[in-house]
Amino acid sequence: MSKLDQDMQRLALQEQLLQLSQFDETVAWDLGCRIKLICEARQVGVTIEVRRAKETLFFYAMPGVVPNNSEWVRRKRNVVELLHRSSYAVGLAHQKDNTSLPQKTGVSLNDYAEHGGSFPIRVKGVGCVGAVTVSGVPQREDHAIVVEALAELCGIPLAEVALEP
Q1: Which of 58, 59, 85, 163 could disulfide-link 50, Cβ–Cβ 3.0 to 4.6 Å?
Q2: For residue 32, how far is the Cα from the chain centroid?
Q3: Is the pTM higher than 0.85?
């Protein structure tokens, strides 16, 4: 099995397992703060956004980020809100199929970015209710930061869901 296929399988597992029992403003704040702490421990700066039903509940631009990171957050988040899948999974699926989001859906790359860093917020028994997005480091690391924070919040050992290095 190729590395791409392994990653795609692991991404599907992440989307299946990383589901919350509830999601409200308090959980959104907790998730955003967890991401901030993870990034501080790694000594990286990112822009963080947590949304529910297209309402921003948490937003923070860490020291060292540039205004363009907010634009990347918006574009990656739009992918999740459109397809209810992680932006990284969408990008890898299109890479595998040698296609692109604009080819598949007709959307503009001015508004959509199929790069890692945005992940659907799912509530058990409900489905996708929002998106959590990070931008500031390479896309695989953006994605890994979000997964680490969600795994902590869901009580799932990171080793069970993390992408292989």
Answers
A1: 58
A2: 12
A3: yes
